[in-house]
Amino acid sequence: xxxxxxxxxxxxxxxxxxxxxxxxxxxxxxxxxxxxxxxxxxxxxxxxxxxxxxxxxxxxxxxxxxxxxxxxxxxxxxxxxxxxxxxxxxxxxxxxxxxxxxxxxxxxxxxxxxxxxxxxxxxxxxxxxxxxxxxxxxxxxxxxxxxxxxxxxxxxxxxxxxxxxxxxxxxxxxxxxxxxxxxxxxxxxxxxxxxxxxxxxxxxxxxxxxxxxxxxxxxxxxxxxxxxxxxxxxxxxxxxxxxxxxxxxxxxxxxxxxxxxxxxxxxxxxxxxxxxxxxxxxxxxxxxxxxxxxxxxxxxxxxxxxxxxxxxxxxxxxxxxxxx
Length: 324
Hints:
By secondary structure, the protein is mostly beta strands. The chain has a domain at 135-164 and 254-324. It contains 3 helices and 20 strands. A hairpin with a 5-residue loop joins strand 14 (210-212) and strand 15. The two termini are 40 Å apart. The model has no long low-confidence stretch (mean pLDDT 94).
């Protein structure tokens, strides 16, 4: 849908799409008595759905001055709608689940959500991978304001993302290697002196046991718990856990707002060029990636991936556009 109102002073574009991805080529394991390990079949169906809004407006339009606004909002998600041979799961996903669901190794927890520690003072790994969230953002957005006054134009563009998780190798390595400011504490000083003084926050099992079904659901639980009191060397603790117990397993929100670009342009008056071979000239001061406001520390989440890549760069410069 594309609509205009008030002599084109306000415009609205709305796009909805839905695509089906089917007949994917899937490798299915088979009995080795056949002489083969697997066979190729067509199966698994995915459905991607998305929605996008673009709003344009000219709030002010008077002699010599004009203010234009363009705002966009988009959201999309991919769903697993069916699994080959009606199998109950596909890589931990069930039919109807979002395909971007994140499954990862986590620590065992009691019914109240406390980390369970072993007798050695370190967290116990869960035997099942668990979902910690989704990787795709809830939505993306952008806002561009353009102010024009006589020969001058100022354009300001901000954009960003809300929601979605990403794994941060940078933060994981900083906790692991002791370069995160959060590791600057007396526990590390004591660890360097060979002392074991750090006690992880959580509980230990004092009696009983839990049993699970094949999907990792607890079917019976007779465990009794007490606060963890085993002190360990802080450096050993961090190199083994990278503080994952306190940082959602080093998955962080991708939510951010970035001042993407600011441009100030001056259109040189035509009368100044009347006696030259130049037909038109404008000069601009441009700044890109000027400011970033993000929930994730130490990293620019713009790319959606953090694998120790080079940080984004702030740039500032000048442009000249000459017409002959």
